[in-house]
Structure prediction request, 732 residues.
Amino acid sequence: MKRFKYLLSGILSCVVGLSTVYAQNPDISGYVRNYTGMLTTGSNDFSIVQNTLNLDITGSKGNIAFKANPYVYQYFDKDLDWGIREAYLDLYVGNFDVRVGKQQIIWGKADGAFITDIVSPKDLSEFLLPDFEEIRMGVNAVKLDYYLKNNTFEFVWIPVFTETKLPDEKSIWFPQLQSQGIPVTFDHSNSEVDAKLENSELFLKYSLLSSAIDFELMAGYMWDDDFSAHNTPQVDSITNTMTGILIKPEYHRLGVAGGSFSTSLGGTILRGEAAYYMDKHFSTSDFINEGLVKKDYVHYLLGYDFSLFDITMSVQLIQEYIIDYTDQIINEEFENTATFLANKSFLRETLSLDLFAYIGLNNGDALIRPKATYSISDGLEILAGANLFIGDQGRFGQYDKNDMVFIKLKYSF
Amino acid sequence: MPLILILIFCSGIFSLNYIEKSEITIAKIMCIQNDLTSIISQKNNVPNTKTFTKNKKINIMKKVKFATFLLLFAIAGTEISAQSLTAQKIIENVYYRPTGADGTSELSMHLIDSRNNERIRQIKQFSKDFGKEEKSIMFFMSPADVKNTSFMNWSYDDASKDDDQWIYLPALKKTKRISSDSKDDSFMGSDFTYDDLGDRHPNEDNHKLLREETIDGKQCFVIESTPKDGDYMYSKTITWVIKDIWIGIKKEFYDEDADLLKVLTVKKYEKIKDYWVISNTEMKNIQDDHTTKMVLSNIQVDIGIDDNKFTERTMTRGL
Prediction:
């Protein structure tokens, strides 16, 4: 509660301070939401009961603007979770835009696949189920954009590395750990990247928006947002048998280059995105080099958006390919996935029915998410849906016991 | 002994909710787009420069005039003798109107159901004629869940070329190209269909002058228009066109069974610079007992909007 008071005090100070600076009232919008989910397998436990306050505070004067996005999550079984998702200043100077501060930076043409969209890390503490803006974490960065008609040149400097946020070990979303019954211990002594200049991340992007095609070209010298598990066997010196595995999570440098495009095709949209990752670390099934090997890796996607019988649909085919593959690598050489989305509105667009399906083609697993959203009045909506995990292994099948139904009540203002 | 230590996770792979929310919101906004683009674009119509054989389905240039009714600009004081006018000519006079080179306005749309429950949508819009192409951009101000969403449309004189459309969703922080699809259903839950808001060319219907009549003190031609395409959503429409200024002040829409479906009424029109602007209209669905009111405010025409207004930079920065 004390932290909550500090937060409110901070928000208030921010609002009052900025409004004084700008001599005009900042614009405050946001939402309040209740999100209740129940597992349908086992004992019908509530998987989540969450109340959210999310604020967007913005203001501008002349060629200066600002935004602050504080949030608070309240749970029945956890402490308050609060923070500032974004807090930045914008300076508009001629053809240049400069944004300084904590910000979400989103790239690419794919929907949901993080291929070239790798500047902002992800909050995976509740798997991939929260809304998009809640999954992407803000990073402290300086972003410089130069505009030449419909061409944009973008440079991003991230002085301090931020890693992917993983679920708590007790969470139902904590990833499956397969160690054949051998005890595992973690050593986090090397799991931090020091905040110093040489550990900065740099990104460049050129993008064009034109009648014929939109495309982006990008490159990055970054840290892999996901840690690599350095595994060391622990052996009983007397019996010479393995007694456990010591895992040291570490983050490694990564070079990435890629691009994306989007174009119209007779009333439909064709999209594509690809990235080449240099020296990405992959886990192996032995302890040579601490169970890791560096390989180049390609990740690409083709997407198609269309309408059929007044139903909006979207299909994406995605492939990941490890170049110069060896059998010791735990990941498969090719990982194939597909997504499918269908949406239709009724009752003067106050009722929306949606079906999203994600299919892991390698493991035959899937996540199916039907939902219905009804707008009770302007700004107030109720949403009922389900998350159905199919299969027993793979990225989605591992959560087969986490099938759930949920209701969200959201008021936007 | 082979050991397998697998940490299976999706980090770096997908965000499902991203896909879902993005597409759904886009689908929702697309409905808003197509129609409002029409509203914005109409100001920039230049008579006699458009080929009337444009593809009806996807060409927003076909939508830019509300022909005889909605929020349109009309020539003031066109001198044509009533005696020499045919029904076809009257409708063409409404269709071909000079408008400003650019313009901006705020649109407020009120959706009122049979129990007087009201929903309001508000939009700020800009448009400019670049000669062979016309560009428009709009920013959604309310309801709150679509606030700061922006949409840009480029339409072309070339009849074979589809419109290009993009949407910027602030929650996704990404500008996304969308298809310029067109539907016959209502948009934003209103009583207007895409086609109602569209630029229906006079040659798509057979027109008959029924009579001359005074409505609200204005001398009007009453024109019955029957579609040449038998599959059209309306069996006929009847339009009251004010003489001399060529504004359709009232229009009735009849369904496929020839029953009265909707009535459009112009509540207010005003002269801004050299253009007549209809700034307040009402569409009432008789069969559903549902009404939509559209009000334009802060209308400005020929103000010299910068070419760079119609770029991704503006979409992402917002108003």
User: Anything to note?
Assistant: The longest helix of chain A spans residues 2-22. Residues 108 and 116 of chain A are 6 Å apart (CA to CA). Chain A is about 5% helix and 60% strand. Residues 1-5 of chain A have pLDDT under 50 and may be disordered.
